[in-house]
Automatic annotation (TrEMBL):
Keywords: 4Fe-4S, GTP-binding, Iron, Iron-sulfur, Lyase, Metal-binding, Molybdenum cofactor biosynthesis, Nucleotide-binding, S-adenosyl-L-methionine
The species this protein was found in: Prunus mume
Domain Radical SAM core: 79-300
SUPFAM superfamilies found in the cross-reference section: Radical SAM enzymes
Transmembrane segments: none
Entry EC no(s): 4.1.99.22
Protein name per Swiss-Prot or TrEMBL: GTP 3',8-cyclase
Gene: LOC103319124
Length: 351
């Protein structure tokens, strides 16, 4: 019989009502179709019908080296034995780019501002999760840096007793000027999205200018001592697959972790399997140019396969969402900007 755990939280126009408004079944034992953003409405609940099923068998086994004795509350333990100690919080549904693999050019319908979680609600919910055993929080969007109170949110979250890591995933457009203050407010880890090193390609893909600003943000993060600075790159055949080794070259002298992500299908990105560059092919290309590439030891909950080129300061990773699934070690939970809750990034269900 499957174990069921119930996580209680609520949101109303009056704020949280001491967990009594409704219940969320906290079950993470099912995987289905995909959604690539933590914010509601940016991406479809359903994959393109031509896309392969990604999670049909991948949750069947839990890695044997997951911790057995852990102070995490039973509430964060699912029926597959996974301890969900990592919470992603979407601060906004809005974004200042229109990346072609993420959303249509005209944008999407957004939740009205009054229905987006307030700063106090975010902090209160985060405190509940952290007090139950969550030790890592990642701020996402949309684009989290466009939220005006992000510094205050970081300050409050970083002071939560038990939180070890406060991270952000950002497109980097406004990060460079905000990062010094964010670091003062307790931000400990930075992921920056960048899919091309060619400014003209960047403008084509994002439908906006800003390549130089992203590069400035990467360098600003390095200068401020973030190590590693993670750079997320979605690889698409015929667009940027010819730049894979150029990205790896960035790791030679700088503490950059390049993270190549397999192209995934969502409404608005006109996904086609011909655009997918599988992990095995990306790895072959890198090894031909950098034969000293060595596999690193991955943590059981890592979504990435991690490597390093000998004598390079940084690292190279591959996120194999399409060809080699990683559900068995997943420890992530997702709080959406409108207060809804997801237990699986690749599942359509929201609570």
């Amino acid at each position: 019989m499957m174990k069921r755990h119930v996580f209680k939280f609520a949101r109303s126009r009056m704020g949280f009502a001491d967990f009594n408004c409704f219940l969320v079944d906290f079950e993470t034992g099912s995987c289905s179709t995909s959604r690539n953003s933590d914010s509601k409405g940016l991406l479809s609940h359903q994959m393109n019908a031509s896309a392969p099923r990604m999670c049909s068998t991948s949750c069947a086994k839990v890695p044997e080296d997951l911790p057995k004795d852990n102070p995490v509350s039973d509430m964060l333990l699912d029926s597959f034995g996974r301890l969900h100690t990592y919470l992603r919080i979407s601060l906004t549904e809005r974004c200042n780019l229109r990346c072609q693999y993420c959303m249509p050019a005209e944008g999407v319908d957004l939740t009205p501002s009054p229905k987006i979680l307030s700063q106090n609600e975010i902090v209160r919910l985060a405190n509940l999760f952290v007090s139950s055993g969550v030790d890592k929080i990642r701020l996402t969007g949309g684009e989290p840096t466009i939220r005006k109170d992000i510094e205050d949110i970081c300050l409050h979250l970083s002071n939560l007793n038990g939180l070890k890591t406060l991270a952000i995933t950002t497109n980097g457009i406004t990060l460079a000027r905000k990062l010094p203050k964010l670091k003062e407010c307790g931000l400990t880890s930075v992921n920056i999205s960048l899919d091309t090193l060619v400014p003209a390609k960047f403008e084509f893909m994002t439908r906006r200018k800003g390549h130089q600003k992203v590069m400035e943000s990467i360098n600003a993060a390095i200068d401020l001592g973030y190590n590693p600075v993670k750079v997320n790159c979605v690889v698409m055949r015929g667009f940027n697959d010819d730049e894979i080794c150029d990205f790896v070259e960035l790791t030679r002298d700088k503490p950059i972790n390049i993270r190549f992500i397999e192209f995934m299908p969502f409404d608005g990105n006109v996904w086609n399997v011909k655009k997918l560059v599988p992990y095995s092919e990306m790895l072959d290309r890198v090894v031909k140019r950098f034969p000293d590439l060595k596999r690193l030891q991955d943590h059981p909950t890592d979504t990435a396969k991690n490597f390093r080129v000998d004598e390079h300061a940084g690292a190279v990773s591959f996120i194999t969402s399409m060809t080699e699934h990683f559900c068995a070690g997943c420890n992530r939970l997702r709080l959406l900007a409108d207060g809804n809750f997801k237990v699986c990034l690749f599942g359509p269900s929201e609570k």
